[in-house]
Amino acid sequence: MKYRLGNGKKIKEVGETLELVCPECRKKVNFSVFSNDEKTIVPEFPLIKSGTVFFLVCPNCSKVYGVEESTGKNFKKGEMLAIGNYSLKELTEFEAFKHE
User: Fold this and answer.
1) Edge-to-edge strand order for the sheet containing 28-36?
2) Which of the 8 DSSP states describes residue 69?
3) What gap in Å lies between CA 56 and CA 79, rounded to an integer?
4) CB distance 73 to 29 below 8 Å
5) Predicted local distance difference test score (pLDDT) of residue 95
6) In terms of DSSP bridges, do strands 28-36 and 54-57 run parallel, antiparallel, or are they unpaired?
7) CA-CA distances (angstroms) from residue 31 to 15, 59, 95?
8) What gap in Å lies between CA 65 and CA 68, rounded to an integer?
9) Closest by CA position to 98, among listed 50, 42, 39
10) Closest to 37 (Cα-Cα) out of 2, 13, 63
């Protein structure tokens, strides 16, 4: 199965979380947070799903997790407590077109 991290081709480091417990390896770590570097000039085309994807990588076991876009944006604004253990989700498959 193919996954894609958002619409942008550039990946940008956003920062590092406070200490969290990795659900995979159960170690207390500071996750590195990344996002696709999306810059939109034209409003969203109705047939194409777009958005910024935020994802975290465990420095111990290399497991990758996603977080909600709003959570990632709050973290990017400097809210260090925006991402907690409850925020970590499995990455979902990227859908380029809506199926209707």
Assistant:
1) 11-21, 28-36, 54-57, 64-67
2) H
3) 16
4) no
5) 55
6) antiparallel
7) 9, 6, 26
8) 10
9) 50
10) 13
pTM of the model: 0.72
Strands (E), 1-100: 11-21, 28-36, 54-57, 64-67
Q: Is the dihedral of CA 98, 47, 69, 38 positive or negative?
A: positive
Q: CA triplet 13, 2, 52: central angle to 5 degrees? A: 35
Q: Read off φ and ψ for residue 81, nearest 5 degrees.
A: -85, 5
Q: In this predicted model, what pLDDT tens digit does every residue of 15-61 receive, in sequence order?
A: 999 999 999 999 999 999 999 865 554 555 555 556 788 999 999 99
How many Cβ atoms from other residues are within 10 Å of residue 53's Cβ? Answer: 22
Side chain identity at 28, as an amino acid letter? K
Task: Specify the pLDDT at position 25.
Answer: 95
Distance of CA 86 to the CA centre of its chain: 14
